[in-house]
Every structure is written in C-alpha cells, then in structure tokens.
Amino acid sequence: QVQVVQSGAEVKEPGASVKVSCKALGYSFTNFAVHWVRQAPGERLEWMGWINGGNGNTAYSQKFQGRVSITSDTAASTAYMELTSLTSEDTAVYYCARDRTTTWWGAMDAWGQGTTVTVSS
Amino acid sequence: DIMVTQSPDSLAVSLGERATINCKSSQSLLYSSDNLNYVDWYQQKPGQPPKLIIYRASTRESGVPDRFSGSGSGTDFTLTISSLQAEDVAVYYCQQNFATPITFGQGTRLEIK
After folding, report:
1. Interchain pair B55, A44: CB under 8 A
2. Residues of B with CB below 8 A from A35's CB?
3. Identity of the residue in A35, A45, A100 whose CB atom sits nearest the CB atom of B93
4. Secondary structure, 3-state, B37-64
5. What percent of chain A has pLDDT over 70?
C-alpha cells in the first residue's frame, strides 16, 4: 500500500529555517518524483518545487528560489524540504506528494498528511 | 506564470443532480507533441490532503467513481459530477503541469443544496 508520511508540526521564530521530511512507504522511491506544495490559511495550493527520486534533479518555483532546498536520501526513501529566512507569511500546511512519474508533469497521485509550520515570535 | 482560474468559487447542488466546475488557463495546456492536455483535478475534504481524481484533463484516477469526468482542451476545462453524492462535498482544484511553476486554481467549494 502506497503511503507518504511526513514529519510533525513545527513552530519557528521569524528568520529561522525549517526542514520537513517525507518518507515513501510501499513503493520504490527512485521510480518516482516528489513535489512540495503548501497551503496557507485561506489561500490556494502553491507549488514550491520538485525532486526526481531517481537522479536527484530538482526544479523550484522562482518565488522561493534561494530560500528553498529540496533534497533526498534514497537509502532512507525520504525527501526533505528546507525553507530558510521564515516570515509569518510562511505559516502554512506543507505537503509532499508523489508524482506518477519521475518527471514534474505526471500528476500528484499520493499525498502526505501535511505538516503545519507556524512562524511566530 | 500560467494563471488558472476556476468558476464558480462555490456551488450548491442537490443530491443526485449534476455539478459542473470550470477551469480556464491563461495559455493553452495542450502539448502538441502528444496531443494531451496537462491539467489535473483534485478533491480536498476538510482536514485532509488533496486527492487526485482526474489527470491529463480526462483520465480518471484508479478507484475514482465513474460519476466524475473531465473534459476540455486548450484553455478551457470542465469537471463534471454526474449525480452528486453526500461524500462529494469538498473543495475541488484544477492544476496545470504544462509548465513550471505548476499552478493551481483558487478552488471551488461544492456543497449540498
């Protein structure tokens, strides 16, 4: 059974960084890609970037360029998303989602449960 | 960035009736090399992550009831629920993956009338 399991909720101060993990269960991590999508309160879903689980290639939304880093540990079947220089506008639920393919254009067919990141002083 | 706009923002439909949600993109999502439209539809229920229901504009994801269907090409797309069930109450999002950044519509909230 395919599952995507994310790390727990985080509370951070402004200016700090957060790193969220996303573990693949029930499928071969290297045969698929992983997207990161966030959802701020009352806002639409927002794509942050993507990593190819097989070769580690990445692509990022220009909005987050320079602040976001998506990495993976294939031995642990886990992807990570690190966001730096946090502000209150980064308060959101962060999701990882498997792509049906190793590309970024396949469709997101399995989602993690979401990780709430709260940025507050 | 490709803009994706849904209509209406909210919709109330009686049980057993048809629900139709529209999605319009700022540029064509039809890829000429494979003649496929790079638009997907997701369903999100309260407190849950989104769930893929339609990909490539019209292909139903495995396990999704056949009352859900997707249509359209180019810049205009439609999600149709042929006979609304109580469990279909959710927010529905269309998304384009024709180009990065991948972008989503603002969502359409579907309720029972």
Report:
1. no
2. 102
3. A45
4. ECEEEEEECCCCCCEEEEECCCEECCCC
5. 100
